[in-house]
């Protein structure tokens, strides 16, 4: 079979170099970006109402009463969600990225005044946090992770997207470094183990993991068949995101521990792995030399499994303690404070580990990276918890749509990203063209996910 034209291979090489050898930004700036997205979600909640959300949701699920009026109401609400949450996020990640801290302060001020104005006009009793509230916060959190990931995987190939937000090569912190770690943590916080649900049988465990393995193989074959750009130092030659999730799921199924002890096991795994890194494993993983065997070819992806597994185990215990443990009023108030001081503790732990043990490295998924992912994700949860004290709705139509099709929305985002990269020279696109493509991409993603939700279509393999 003839090789691809040199122009295509040259374009692939340039795109790979464009996302290589990057050092990231500061953990504080990443925290500010995440805070901005979280506040946008809260702002949307503050200008909406639970009654409107419930009315639209009930009508779209009632086939007998379904009408064009209901459809228009759903699309109008979905469009409002897009304009308040998604569009500003695109701008924050591109043309407004140099003013991140200013926007953080501005959004916090705007939210304060909206809440003060609505609070003074409201005669309803103060909202009491409860189990339903916790589920809403977790839904908003999962949505924020997914929409941020979907926007970044497309934007990173354009020059309008700051390189400081792209994945780091060896050590450092960046927005996109949070991607796979956040997915692992999202799954752990709401996992069967965190909810103290009985463990799965081997058959069920295999059924839940096999789709991830299949998706990993499909991605491997498809990227190779079209000569799609692949950043080899991220996972390795053949490894990818789906294989990592599958491996963590398999390990969790094999070694099943109660949630009250999973944090201890996770800590032991992470400390043991970090000791191995310090005593020479890090040099092997960061080396550009690769052998011919499968482990050497995919060393980053394979060895980082230990870090992600340890992170998952910690997430199980945190999820059980913060969200699925004792739901008495006293415990809920105590856990609300815990959602504030735990991220702060993890933040300073990351700073100390980064300075005195080893730098943060997503590539190896070392201990400082794990504490950073935990700190920043729990910070997002802490900000979203403010929804309990803000008059308005506790969710949005867009959040519901994404949460009901998390896997489907992520797969669609990957397909759209691939199509754009194969049909557009992203590196040569002007800022205006890049911004137009990003908005169009986000619009298509929102509309398709929204229509799927409206029609009660859910992509679920297990």
From TrEMBL:
Molecular function per GO: glucosaminyl-phosphatidylinositol O-acyltransferase activity
GO cellular component: endoplasmic reticulum; membrane
Subcellular locations according to the entry: Membrane
TM ranges: 20-43, 73-95, 101-121, 141-161, 237-257, 264-285, 305-324, 336-357, 369-390, 402-420, 432-457
Membrane topology label: Multi-pass membrane protein
Native species: Carya illinoinensis
A biological process from GO: GPI anchor biosynthetic process
Keyword terms, alphabetized: Membrane, Transmembrane, Transmembrane helix
Main location: membrane
One Pfam family matching this protein: GWT1
Protein name: GPI-anchored wall transfer protein
């Amino acid at each position: 079979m003839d090789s691809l034209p040199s122009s295509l291979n040259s374009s692939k090489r340039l795109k790979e170099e464009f996302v290589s050898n990057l050092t990231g930004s500061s953990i504080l700036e990443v925290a500010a970006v995440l805070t901005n997205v979280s506040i946008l979600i809260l702002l949307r909640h503050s200008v909406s109402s639970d009654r409107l959300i419930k009315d639209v949701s009930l009508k779209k699920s009632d086939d007998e009463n379904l009408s064009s009026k209901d459809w228009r109401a759903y699309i109008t609400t979905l469009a409002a969600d897009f304009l308040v949450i998604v569009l500003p996020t695109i701008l924050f990640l591109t043309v407004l990225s140099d003013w991140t801290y200013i926007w953080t302060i501005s959004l916090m001020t705007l939210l304060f005044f909206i809440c003060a104005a609505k609070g003074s006009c409201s005669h309803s009793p103060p909202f009491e946090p409860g189990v339903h509230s916790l589920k809403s916060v977790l839904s908003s959190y999962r949505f924020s992770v997914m929409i941020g990931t979907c926007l970044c995987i497309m934007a990173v190939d354009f020059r309008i997207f700051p390189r400081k937000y792209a994945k780091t090569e060896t050590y450092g912190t960046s927005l996109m470094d949070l991607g796979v770690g956040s997915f692992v943590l999202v799954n752990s916080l709401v996992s069967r183990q965190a909810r103290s649900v009985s463990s799965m049988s081997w058959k069920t465990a295999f059924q839940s993991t096999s789709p991830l393995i299949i998706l990993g193989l499909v991605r491997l074959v498809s990227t190779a068949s079209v000569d799609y750009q692949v950043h080899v130092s991220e996972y390795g030659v053949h490894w990818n995101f789906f294989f990592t999730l599958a491996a963590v799921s398999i390990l969790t199924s094999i070694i099943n521990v109660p949630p009250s002890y999973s944090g201890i096991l996770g800590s032991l795994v992470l400390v043991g792995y970090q000791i191995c890194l310090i005593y020479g494993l890090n040099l092997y993983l960061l080396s550009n030399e690769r052998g011919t065997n499968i482990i050497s070819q995919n060393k980053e992806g394979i060895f980082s499994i230990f870090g992600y597994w340890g992170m998952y185990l910690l997430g199980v215990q945190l999820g059980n303690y913060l969200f699925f443990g004792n739901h008495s009023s006293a415990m809920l108030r105590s856990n609300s404070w815990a959602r504030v001081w735990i991220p702060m503790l993890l933040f300073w732990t990351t700073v100390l580990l980064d300075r005195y043990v080893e730098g943060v490295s997503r590539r190896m998924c070392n201990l400082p990276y794990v504490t950073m992912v935990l700190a920043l994700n729990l910070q997002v949860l802490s900000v979203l918890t403010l929804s309990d004290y803000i008059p308005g709705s506790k969710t949005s139509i867009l959040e519901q749509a994404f949460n009901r099709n998390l896997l489907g929305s992520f797969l669609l985002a990957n397909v759209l990203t691939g199509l754009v990269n194969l049909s557009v020279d992203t590196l040569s696109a002007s800022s205006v063209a890049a911004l137009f493509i990003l908005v169009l991409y986000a619009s298509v993603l929102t509309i398709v996910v929204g229509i799927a939700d409206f029609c009660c279509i859910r992509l679920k393999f297990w």
